[in-house]
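Illustration: M20/M25/M40 family metallo-hydrolase.
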Amino acid sequence: MSVLLLAGVLAVAGAQSPPVASGTAALAHVATLSQQIGPRPAGSPAYIRATEYVTEQFQRLGYRVEPQAFPFQFFDEPYLPILTVVAPVELVLHPATMIYSTATPEDGVAAELVDVGLGREEDLRGKRLDGKVAFAGRGQIRFSEKASFAAAAGASAIIIFNNQPGPAQTGTLLTPSRIPVVMVPYDEGLRLGAWLAAGPVRVHLVIRTVTERRSSANVIAVKPGTSSPQEVVVVGAHLDSVPPSPGANDNASGVAAVLEVARLLVEVPTARTVHFVAFGAEELGLVGSSYYVANRTLAVTGMVNLDMVGHRAQLLLSNSAGRGGLMDVAEQVAGRLGIGVQRLSLGSSDHVSFEGAGVPVVFIHTGDDGVYHTPQDVYARIDPNLLAQAASLAAALVVEIAR
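Result:
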């Protein structure tokens, strides 16, 4: 397992012996969070255990830890969804329920399936579904929009099929839906589409869900600044995961990298204050990071977000625009460290909360691994070398912008 020296940047910052990022140490954090604790939905007992673990790790390093509680809309699914093709053949499918999907009636929804293309407004214009189940491909618009358009057309439920091979991936609708919403895997979607092209298809769907107000928390470790303590640089990763996924890559990997950054910077002075943050309820719509931004008491001068940094070939640098923010300086720091990176535009993680407040950001990640939000997002898939690279880059970048 390789480690990367933070030589160039930390030497400039005054560190006599640059520390090294340990992929092995980071991997141990991933093991604890994804294997010992497991799925960590916000507001659950498992999430509380995860916050206790992260708090203990920060405190062992000597940091002051400030938990930040916030309210949110809790979602749970007591039982796995049941989706069965009734005609033209009988077949049990393997759906994933969308977060904030409403439940079906006790006896489920049994109805004809109707192909609505991508489920866009123009796809449904003039159509009346009246109790039928909409069948839509993934892509182009949000899941919540597909559900809203289908509900407006009178659908009793909507089935979205994934647009890439692999298991069905859940996602968030941000707010409770009017109709039940599930996703099916790509291969099952192709079969349903072929049957629909040949004739009528009937399905039976049963979903049980719970939605209620609860509280969760961010975990904030504080490194006081030496000369500009009223200004803060944030390096963070979301701690929650989507059940039933163990969330190894999404996002125990990012949290592990943040813990490793905190270890690397214990003895490195920074002019600005640094907050190491494990955010809660990211999977429910960036709730924890939005709360942090709305209730900040210091001037946030930069934010480094780590989300899914443990699988695939190399690190990616993103923000919503694909340019500006901290993208240029992150690319320069990566070059000095000999870390290969690619740039692209991407939102959909906690950095977006900071971007909305005008804070320069960079999102360090490795892209879609094909199994996030599924039970296949496991520890065995995590590459410690990528963890070390992500932690090294984030630590050096924090020193660069916090000095």
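Reading the tokens back as a structure: The radius of gyration is 22 Å.
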